[in-house]
Amino acid sequence: SFHIYGGQEDDRNSELAAGAISKNLIYAGNIMYRLGSNVIASFETSQTRTTYLGAGTKLNPHYDLALAYLF
What we know:
By secondary structure, this protein is an all-beta fold.
């Protein structure tokens, strides 16, 4: 199976001090594959974009690889 998701948090910039986080944006996707009747392999990737007031945007990529055994 294949899944995608995302979200955003955006504050009012007029209520923030310089250097504060004004916005977070995240998007991600994953793939899950059933290797056997009770074994699942999965790969997930995501990226978070954090915007600081007056200081620009920082990108944070994240990658996961998992193997699950179902009891």
